[in-house]
Amino acid sequence: MNIPLYTLLFAYIVFMVVFLIFTFVNLYHLATTASLTLVSFAFTFFILSAATIILYFTAVFLIDVNWTQSLFGQTPLESFSDPF
How confident is the model at residue 56 (pLDDT cuts 50, 70, 90)? Predict the structure, then answer.
């Protein structure tokens, strides 16, 4: 069973889309309820800056990955010998 690595990339992209949706809902909620206090601004800035730093380091670490490789290596699982 060969599962290519780019399936994990698709799962990560789906996670990021859901995260962005929650971020925009949060910003919309802050704007419509007029709860623009210093505390809400500070926490929103902290969360967005942490997410930006995580995205940056994710891109730096994953830039050299060969996404066409198999998730479990080149040998199929059926080729392992039976220990019994």
Answer: very high
Give the separation between CA 74 and CA 82, rounded to whole angstroms. 19
**What DSSP assignment string belongs to 10-69?**
HHHHHHHHHHHHHHHHHHHHHHHTT---HHHHHHHHHHHHHHHHHHHHHHHHHTT--TTS
Arithmetic mean of pLDDT, 31-52? 87
| Amino acid at site 22 | F
Question: What pLDDT does residue 78 have?
Answer: 54
Kindly report the pTM of this predicted structure.
0.66
| Domain boundaries of the chain, sorted by first residue | 38-63
